[in-house]
């Protein structure tokens, strides 16, 4: 039976011609700084948008938020469920609602964190869109946002908010930073300032603005599933994971990443870095199952390609 699922969208309308920008939070229910960022944007930018419209969604997947978990009450991941189904379960209905809004906007910013599972190095990402003009717009949005890593990945995965934007030819970026609580004010402020810079870049805000420094790292990788975090560095056994690195570290192949200890079989094994690069994210939940991600390493280059 179809349930009534209302995705609340709030709007700041300048009353003048300009782009419509959609900012999403709460695609995953355990990612809280994006929700607080959206509140700050709506509270502080009312009366200051000079062109176009700003749409914000505080919580896309309400049942996931109410359950304080990544997935909806139906066990589905909204970030793998787009374009959804108006006659389906709760997550599918909410995926359908947000997909409709994405198709109706001109630019998309999707805010995330690592939730309770991962701590993630601050990054702005996008799909490597086949349209060169849209791809360049995404690069420009990512640079304006101002986080230290810009990461373009495989354009082919479906089910995402970004894949809906891709197919609708809507330039889109997503951001990731941090993860487990408590709430970190520096993430909220970083996200707020990043969104403001993008809006300024698009001509929707006036006034002097301090521009972000060039990204420290710039990576574009079209390899299949290059942006899929849950598929990286899979644990060879179940147990208790103790990390020996943190996000933002640089590691070399063979360096100790952490240990997994099985307290029932009394067996401990070291986990070694499988490549050189940047610690992009690290697992924060100690209990790990066989084949679950322990984190990921990104082969890096500087903005100048060095």
Notes on the structure:
There is one protein chain. This protein is an alpha/beta fold and 306 residues long. 24% of the residues lie in helices and 26% in strands. The protein has 6 helices and 15 strands. Strands 1, 2, 3, 4, 5, 6, 7, 8, 10, 13 and 15 form an 11-stranded mixed beta sheet that branches. It is globular and about 65 Å long. α4 packs across α6. The C terminus is likely disordered.
Number of strands: 15
Uncertain runs are 302-306
Work out the helicity level.
10-25%
Give me the Rg, rounded: 19 Å
Q: What quaternary form is this?
A: single chain
Counting DSSP H or I runs of 4 or more residues, the number of helices is 6
Distance between the termini: 56 Å
State the shape.
globular
- Secondary structural class: alpha/beta
| Element-level helix/strand string | EEHEHHEEHEHEHEEEEEEEE
SSE arrangement:
Layout: E1 10-13, E2 20-24, H1 32-45, E3 53-57, H2 62-66, H3 90-104, E4 107-111, E5 118-127, H4 132-145, E6 149-153, H5 161-168, E7 172-178, H6 185-201, E8 217-221, E9 239-243, E10 250-251, E11 256-262, E12 267-272, E13 277-283, E14 287-288, E15 295-298
Parallel strand pairs: 2-3, 2-4, 4-7, 5-6, 6-8
Antiparallel strand pairs: 1-3, 5-7, 5-13, 9-11, 9-14, 10-13, 11-12, 13-15
Helix pairs in contact: 1-6, 3-5, 4-6
């Amino acid at each position: 039976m179809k349930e009534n699922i209302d995705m609340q969208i709030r709007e700041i309308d300048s009353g003048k011609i300009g782009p419509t920008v959609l900012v999403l939070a709460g695609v995953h229910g355990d990612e809280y700084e994006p929700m607080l960022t959206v509140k700050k944007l709506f509270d502080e930018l009312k009366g200051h948008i000079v062109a176009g419209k700003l749409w914000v969604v505080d919580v896309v997947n309400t049942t996931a938020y109410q359950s304080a978990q990544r997935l909806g009450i139906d066990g589905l991941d909204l970030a793998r469920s787009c374009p959804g189904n108006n006659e389906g379960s709760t997550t599918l209905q909410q995926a359908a609602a947000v997909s409709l809004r994405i198709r109706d906007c001109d630019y998309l910013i999707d805010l995330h964190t690592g939730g309770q599972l991962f701590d993630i190095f601050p990054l702005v990402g996008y799909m490597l869109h086949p349209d060169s003009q849209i791809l360049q717009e995404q690069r420009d949005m990512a640079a304006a946002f101002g986080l230290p890593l810009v990461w373009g990945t495989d354009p082919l995965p479906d089910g995402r908010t970004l894949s809906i934007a891709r197919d609708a030819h809507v330039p889109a970026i997503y951001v990731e930073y941090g993860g487990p609580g408590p709430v970190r004010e520096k993430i909220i402020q970083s996200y707020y300032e990043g969104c403001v810079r993008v809006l300024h870049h698009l001509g929707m805000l006036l006034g002097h603005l301090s521009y972000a420094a060039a990204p420290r790292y710039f990576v574009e990788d079209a390899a299949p599933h290059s942006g899929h975090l849950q598929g990286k560095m899979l644990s060879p056994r179940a147990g208790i994971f103790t990390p020996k690195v943190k996000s933002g570290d640089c590691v070399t192949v063979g360096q100790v990443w952490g240990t997994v200890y099985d307290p029932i079989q009394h067996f401990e094994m070291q986990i070694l870095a499988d490549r050189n690069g940047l610690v992009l994210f690290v697992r924060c939940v100690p209990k790990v199952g066989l084949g679950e991600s322990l984190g990921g390493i990104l082969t890096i280059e500087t903005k100048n390609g060095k």
